[in-house]
Structure of Hydrogenase 4 subunit B:
Amino acid sequence: MGEFAIRLFVLSLLLFVFGAFSALCFSRRTKWANVLAHCSSFFGGLFGATTALFVLSTKHPIIVTAWTIVSDVVLRLKVDMLSAYFLFVISFVTIAVSVYSLGYVTEYYGKKPMGLLGSGLNLFVLSMIAVVTVDHSVSFLIAWELMSLLSFLLVMVEHEKAETRKAGYVYVVMTHFGTVFIILSFLTLFFFTKHLDFSSFTQTAAHLPASVKNIIFLLSLIGFGTKAGMIPLHVWLPRAHPAAPSHISALMSAVMIKTAIYGLLRVNYDFLKGGATWWGAVVLGIGVLSAVLGILFGVAENDMKRFLAFSSAENIGIIFMGLGASLLFRSYHEPLLGALALTALLYHVLNHAIFKGLLFMGAGSVLYATHTKNINELGGLIRRMPWTAVLFLIGGMSLAAFPPLNGFMSEWTTFQSLLHLSFSLDHPIWKTVGGLLAAALGLTGAFVAGSVVKHFGTAFLALPRTPHAAKANEVPLAMRFGMIVLACGTIAFGVWPGLVLRMTNRITESYFHQSLTGRAMLYIPFHRSAESISLGWTTIIFFAILLLLITLLRVWVGKSNNRYDETWNCGTPLVQTMEYTGTSYSHPVLMIFKRLYGIERKVEVQGEYAYYPKRIRHRLKTEAIIETKLYRPLILGTVWLSQRLRAIQSGNLQSYLAYMIITLIVLLLWIR
C-alpha cells in the first residue's frame, strides 16, 4: 500500500508538471491551453488529496527521493502527518479552483497569453506542495522562493495597471523581507546543529540553550508571519490579493498564506519542541491584534476583494490565537488542552481555506459579470445571478461563524481554548486574560457578521445602481461548479466535524500524545464532566423553546395574513439613489474608530435654501494608519541613512581596497 501511495503522489506531481508544459506548448491555441492546464491541475489536486488521506489514515509517512542537488543537499519529499494535512488543504482547494478557472480565464482570451497563465497556476501549486513536503532547509528555501516569485508573476498579470505594479512591488519586497528572517533562523539552527536537514533539526534542536531557541522562535515568527499576513506585516496582503486574477487570489488567500502556518508549526513543534511561556503570550498578542484590527480595516472597505484580503489577516489572527494557546498550554504541561488548541488552529486552517476560496471565487464571479469590485456600483445581483448570490452567502455565513457551517466549528473550538486559559490555568493573570481574549474573539465575530451583511446586502440586494449591475448575467457552469465544491465543504466539515478530527488527531497524537473526540467541541470545560455545560443539549433546548413559542403564538394569534405590495415611499417612486451604500452602512463604525482610520470628512450642500438642498455630497477619506505611522518613517529613515552611506562611495580605488582589508581583519578576528 505504501508503494501505491508513493506512485499516486508522484503522479500528482507529474500532472502539475505536465499541465505547466502542455499549456506553454499550446499557448497559441487558447482553448487547448486552458483545458490542458486546468484539467491537469484538477487531477493533480485529486491525486494529491487522495495521497494525503492515505497517509493520515494509515499513519505511514511516505518518502520520495528525487536527486542530489549538491553534496549533502538532497531533494527529498517526505509526507508525514503534518505535511499530509497541509497537502490535503492545498489539493482540495486546487480541485475547486481548477474547475472554476476553466470558465473564469475565458475573460482573458485575446488579452493575456493563456499558456503562461495556465502554466503559472500549475507551477504555483507545485511549489506550495514542495514547501510542505521537502525535508531539507536548502530545498525548502528554494521551494519557498519559487512560490514567492511565481505568485509575484501571477499578481502582475495585469501589469499595465499602475495599482497592479505597485501591489506587485510591495508584495515582492515584503515577501523577501520575511525570507531573510527564515534564512537567518535556518542558519542559526545550522550553526548549532552542524546539519541542514529537517531530521537532524528534529533530533538536536530541542536541546539547544534557551537563549538560542528564543532567537530561532523570534526569527521564524517574523519570517513566516510576514508571509501569513499578520499585522503589522500585512501591508502586502490588501494590495496583492485584489490585484491578482480572482482564481489566483483564491489560491493565495486560501492556501499560500497557510504555508507560513506550516512553517511555524514545523519549527516550533518539530524542531524546538515548544518553549517558554512568553512564546505563547507573544503569539496570542499578535493574534488578537491581527484579528481585531484586520476586520476593523475590512469594515471600511467597499472593494470586495480588499475586504476579503483584510478578512484573511483577521482569520490569520484567529489561527495565531490557537497557536499561542497551544504553545502556552504546552509550556504549562497541559497536553490535553494543548491538543485542543492545536486542533482548533488546524481546523481553522482547513475551514478558512474553504470558505475564503469560495468567497474570492464569488467576488471573481461578480467581477466577471459586472467588471467592477466596488459594491457601491452593484445592487440587485440576486435576481441576475442567483447561484452566485446563494454561494457567496454560504461563504459569508461561514466567514461570520454562523452554525452549522464549518467556520463556526473551528472558531468555537478556538473560543473553547481561550476559555480554558481561565478555567484550567492556576495563574491569576491568565484567568483574566483568557476571558478578555475570548471576548475579543466574540467582538471580532460581530464585526465580521456586520461586514458580511454590508457586502452581501449592498451587492446582491435592492436595485441595480449602475448599468453594469442591471445587465449582469449568471457566470458559466464551470465557475458555479467550482464554487459548489467548496460550498459543500463548508457544510460537510461543519455538520460532521469528526471528518476533520480524524485527520487532526494524527498530528495531536504525535505532538501531545492526545487525541480528541466530539466531547472536546461540545462541552465547557470538556475534561470536567461534573461541571460541564453541553453545547449540544443547550442547542437542542434552545430550538425546542423556540419551536414551543412559535406554536403558542400560532395557536394564540392564529394564521397571519400577509399581503405583498410595492414598498411605500410617500407617493414617490423608489430610485437607486435612495439605497444604503456600503459607505453609509459602515459609517457608524468609521466614526467610532475615526482615530484608527485617520478619517477626513467633507459634507457639501448644494441648493438655494439650506433646509431644502438639491444635493448633498458626503465624502469620507480613510488613511492607512499603520503605513503612515510605521512604514513611512521607516522608509524615510532608510533613505536618509542610505544618503549618508553614499559618502563611502568615493570612487577611489585605494579606499575600496582599505574597506576590503578592514573587513577581512574583522572576519579573521571573529572566527579565530
